[in-house]
Amino acid sequence: MPLFKKRPEGKPGEWYYCLKHGRVEEGPECRAADRLGPYGTREEASHAMETARERNEEWRTDPRWNDDVGEAGEDPKTG
Fold this sequence. Notes:
Elements: E1 15-18, E2 23-26, E3 35-39, H1 42-46, H2 48-61
Antiparallel strand pairs: 1-2, 1-3
């Protein structure tokens, strides 16, 4: 056991969603690799997974970041 345990950085009023425990936490309580945030409110943090899915879909379909889609939006592999 380490002599000094490093606490996760954060402050009261910052809200996080813990991926490991599947819950909202203030502070944070868990390490950075296991959480999403910070969010401004508990409500925002409670929707973290939904927000992440929406953003991932936007990025996945953004033609500026998709090398597999041609200029006209067609997939060059399928024509």
